[in-house]
Design goal:
Elements (H helix, E strand, L loop, with lengths): L2 E2 L4 H8 L11 H16 L3 E8 L2 E12 L4 E2 L6 E2 L5 H13 L24 H5 L24 H9 L15 H15 L3 H10 L8 E2 L13 E2 L7 E2 L14 E3 L1 H13 L5 H8 L2 E2 L5 E2 L6 E5 L2 E10 L2 E8 L4 E7 L7 H11 L4 H15 L9 H6 L2 H11 L7 E10 L2 E9 L4 E8 L5 E8 L3
Antiparallel strand pairs: 1-3, 2-3, 2-15, 3-4, 5-9, 6-9, 7-8, 10-11, 12-13, 13-14, 14-15, 16-17, 17-18, 18-19
Helix pairs in contact: 2-10, 3-6, 3-7, 5-6, 11-13
């Protein structure tokens, strides 16, 4: 495993995002480095590249490991990675820009722009963007089917997939569909008169100074960028096959650095690129005809996670995985890109979120209690009389001797919450560098804890 650090933090931020100010937490780079290096070692990924936005500015950007395995070539913050389906965020924004200029309406049927679609003609542009149109997805597999190794065209994808019978009537179900985004990208090109990439370059990448964006649909990434890798089971790392030209269009065609993607995230946080109503439409979840709600807007998930609003999207392609997460209220974003299609970047996102996001009150207490257990010194005012009766001097000594050597946790995350016996029950996942733990917390609504029982997970 190789880690490359080219600049001090302030220089790196300045190079990646002019005018950005470094985060005030001097320990942040060390914490991020530790988490990224450990994740890279555990996952076996050749490299990972990370960007952190805090307080609405780029606070850190760093790459770890090798962009190419043999001959070994180190990844740098300027190395580009395929972001695959994170590209859908940009296709949706392009459609919204055309809607702002009254070139189209989200409620137009797609048949108005793409002829001879049969029963799909009545599905709306909004429905293809929020995955409720019923169009059959051409790429549900986690590998590249033989057909996708050969070049194709937008017209061919539409002919073969968009004109098939629908999987369900529009608006009655939710099903992820790359095909729908190919149709949306085709509409952007037909209405604007420009290629999709040219439209994005002019209206998004250039205004936001996303200077390293490219596309890896019509051709592979240049030799200076990341090489995608795959493996079978726990087998050796091998070069991943490249998708045939044309297949990634509008659904997964973009490649960039995490710093580039951070600029886009900052624009989402500050709402600087689109009109106010467009952001409302972009982030509005979908309600199906039976009343079922889905936390997916237009190219973005909009979820409540650990008591916070979180936006984002994942990307998965041949040899690459990507995770883009945005906490708009906290003005924070975490981007993780890797050139391994087996190493889930969400695990590293969770670790980094634990490091950079202020804890919610219940999590703050769980962190405090676990820390006290590790030190063998308890704030007994946190517990009921019954709870304190279990935490004897002997019990605290056992907790200190067994939990203390594990060091600071890399993650404390609420897995689920319920009620029992008049108490609130919370199950916490606790990850330390060498152990996976679980804590069962039971406490009364007025605040006192009855128990905080820590056990080791063996699965």
């Amino acid at each position: 495993m190789r880690r490359t650090l080219f600049y001090p933090l302030a220089m790196l931020v300045s190079a990646c995002l002019p005018g950005a100010q470094a985060a005030s937490d001097d320990a942040l780079p060390t914490r991020i480095d530790m988490q990224a290096e450990e994740w890279l070692s555990i996952s076996g990924a050749p490299s990972v590249s990370v960007a952190i936005v805090q307080n609405g500015v780029l606070a850190y950007a760093q790459a770890y490991g090798n962009a190419e395995v043999a001959p070994a070539r180190a990844a740098t913050p300027s190395t580009r990675y395929a972001i695959d389906s994170v590209s859908k965020e940009f296709t949706a924004a392009a459609v919204l820009m055309l809607a702002e200029n009254r070139k189209l309406s989200l409620d137009d049927p797609i048949g108005k722009y793409v002829p001879d679609l049969g029963e799909a003609s009545k599905a709306t542009i909004r429905q293809v963007l929020n995955h409720t149109a019923g169009l059959r997805d051409f790429w549900p597999q986690d590998f590249v089917p033989p057909e996708m190794l050969r070049p194709t065209s937008t017209a061919a994808i539409i002919e073969e997939w968009a004109r098939r019978p629908l999987d369900f009537a529009p608006g009655t179900d939710w099903q992820y569909s790359n095909t729908g985004y190919v149709v949306a990208g085709s509409i952007v090109e037909r209405v604007s008169g420009a290629s999709l990439f040219e439209f994005l370059q002019q209206h998004i990448f250039t205004p936001l100074r996303m200077e390293r964006v490219t596309e890896d649909d019509t051709h592979p990434l240049p030799a200076a960028d990341a090489v995608g890798y795959t493996r079978q089971g726990l087998g050796p790392t091998r070069r991943a096959p490249k998708e045939g030209a044309g297949w990634l269009f509008a659904a997964a065609e973009l490649a960039m650095t995490p710093g580039d993607l951070a600029r886009w995230d900052i624009s989402l946080i500050d709402r600087t690129l689109l009109k106010p109503n467009s952001y409302t439409v972009l982030l509005e979840g979908v309600t199906l005809k039976d009343g079922t709600r889905k936390d997916y807007g237009l190219g973005l998930y909009n979820e409540r996670v650990q008591g916070r609003t979180r936006l984002g999207h994942d990307g998965a392609g041949s040899g690459f995985l990507a995770a883009n997460r945005i906490w708009p209220q906290e003005k924070t974003a975490i981007i993780v890109l890797t050139n391994a299609d087996w190493a889930d970047p969400d695990g590293l996102v969770d670790r980094l979120a634990f490091a950079v996001l202020p804890p919610q009150p219940s999590e703050a207490r769980a962190r405090a209690v676990f820390s006290q257990y590790q030190q063998g010194a308890l704030d007994r005012s946190l517990f009921t009389e019954a709870g304190n009766s279990v935490l004897t001097a002997e019990a605290l000594a056992d907790l200190k001797s067994t939990l203390g050597p594990l060091g600071s946790p890399v993650l404390i995350e609420l897995e689920r919450e319920g009620k029992r016996g008049g108490m609130i029950t919370r199950i916490w996942k606790i990850l330390c560098h060498s152990k996976r733990l679980r804590a069962v917390e039971r406490g009364y609504p007025e605040g006192k804890l009855e128990e905080f029982l820590v056990t080791e997970l063996s699965d």
